[in-house]
Amino acid sequence: MPQTPAKVVWGVYGDSSRGSSHLRNGLPNQDSIARWAAPGGKQAVLAVSDGHGSASHFRSDQGSRMGVDVAVATLRGAPLPIPEGHAQVLAQAIVDSWRAAVAEHLAGNPFTDEEWAKVPAKEAAQAKATVQANPSVAYGATLLCVLATGSEILFLQLGDGDILCVDSSGGTTRPMPTDSRLIANQTTSLCQASAVQDFRVAHISLSEAPPPALILVSSDGYSNSFQSEEDFLRLGPDYLELLRTYGPEKVEAQLQKILPEASRKGSGDDITLGFIQLVEDGGKPAISVPQSAAAPAPAAAPPPASQSSPPPARMPEAPATGVKRAQSVPVETVRTVKQEPKPVSQAAMPASQPPAAGRETGSSSSERLRVRAENDRLRRKLFLLKVALAGVFILALAGAGVAWWHPEWLGRMKSKPKPAPPAVKKVVHVPLLHPGSYV
After folding, report:
1. Which domain holds residue 172?
2. CA-to-CA distance for 336 and 361, rounded, in angstroms?
3. Burial of 84: CB neighbours in 10 Å, binned 0-12, 13-18, 19+
4. CB of 143 within 8 A of CB of 156?
5. Does 400 or 171 have the greater pLDDT score?
6. Which end of the chain, C or N, has fewer beta carbons within 10 A?
């Protein structure tokens, strides 16, 4: 059984982007993200929330912000190690804190006529009845959160969205159990009475399994931008490679380009991505820079002039995608330069092994092949020229035959004189008399 690592250090990063469809329609970013790391990285918390976009959830952008804030505050104060079955206690605390935050906000900011006016007319009556019965519906949102420590990892999820775990070799898995109720646009929510029971939970002990090198948490706008589950799961090794090459700060900064492009070419929805990175495991860096990105070894000999080293990897600006698709972040692969064998001259060959009789040397053989290829090209050109001349000759004979046997056909082909244009009648405009000027 694996032992708990002597030291585990976590780093937590992420960003959120307003969806392209929200930009066009003047809607706010309804996603939210919050994160926290303890001093020294011995503990990290990440929370992502996606506000519902339907008519009755017109304050969901504020509801998602409240969701991530109370989740981070609750998980920061969780007892460690987490007792068996304590995940439900944490879920209850998160829901209670969220409802309290909603009630406080609503007391100071009652619903306005302007907000109701933005609800489509055909949905206004039903939305108003739903919100009056349960005001927290206006703030409805999902919630995904992760607590990572030196000895365990706790995952909590309510509603749609994605959590991925990536091992050190790039293998990507989903730690959360599936929820068969999440079909199409249907989702569980913080605003529902059964929110606590609807939380899905996963708890990993690092004494029984090695810690993942990377944990990715995203709103469903990201996965909906991919054509297949396989394409989406490729994000795991791709982001792991980016972190190893550039470091977390540069990758986080690049999300401002990657996420908007994924939304524009994919789902059009708001997209949020957060990640918890294993920085150190047992006193050794968990995310190491590959040798190709480090300084070259001093004893390495320079490559021959005919061989060029591969260019350094570029940070991709955004994944190229098609409709309803955003390809995973491209990663620059390390090219293997194949060294061509040097030709061996006859002078360098042993005297006991002369060239076989009748065998051409390398230089004469390549010259013969070059001449043969040139001759083939000339023959093809001559053949095409002959075909073109034969076609012209046949057309000329056909024209001469028509002129000899049916000369009247040529007369019909002559252009007939155009008829003269009809005479234009001259219109005389008689000015109207001013009223009162009649004789």
Report:
1. 8-179+187-285
2. 30
3. exposed
4. yes
5. 171
6. C
Residues β-bridged to residue 200 = 157
Phi and psi at 252, nearest 5°, equal -60, -40
CB-based contact 269:263 (threshold 8 Å): yes
pTM of the entire predicted model? 0.67
Domain for residue 370, yes or no? no
Q: What amino acid is encoded at 310 in this protein?
A: P
Helix (H) or strand (E) holding 31: strand 31-37
In contact, 138 and 131? CB cutoff 8 Å: yes
Domain assignment of residue 149, yes or no: yes
Residue type, 118: K
- Cα separation, 51 vs 30, whole angstroms: 5
Number of H helices, E strands in the chain: 12, 11
DSSP state for residue 13 in the 8-state scheme: E
Mean pLDDT of 321-342: 33
54: domain CATH number is: 3.60.40.10
Rounded CA gap, 179 and 201, in Å? Answer: 11
- 2/66 Cα distance (integer angstroms): 39
Residue 358 lies in a domain: no
Which tokens sit at 432?
A: 């109207």
String of DSSP letters for 284-341: EESSPPPTTTSPPPTTPPPPPTT--PPPPPPPPSS----TT--PPPP-PPPPP-PPPP
Tally of CA atoms within 13 A in the half-sphere of 18 that contains its CB:
10
pLDDT tens profile 207-250 = 999 999 999 999 999 999 999 999 999 999 999 999 999 999 99
Q: Is residue 415 part of a domain?
A: no
User: What is the number of domains present in the chain?
Assistant: 1
The DSSP-derived string for 213-231 is SEEEEE-HHHHTTSSSHHH
Query: What are the pLDDT digits (tens) for 346-368?
Result: 333 333 333 343 334 344 444 55
Please name the residues in contact with 187: beta carbons below 8 A apart, sequence gap of 6 or more: 52, 142, 159, 160
Measured CA to CA, the distance from residue 381 to residue 431 in angstroms comes to 77
- C-alpha to C-alpha distance for 86 and 152, rounded to whole angstroms: 13
Q: How far apart are CA 302 and CA 304, in angstroms?
A: 7
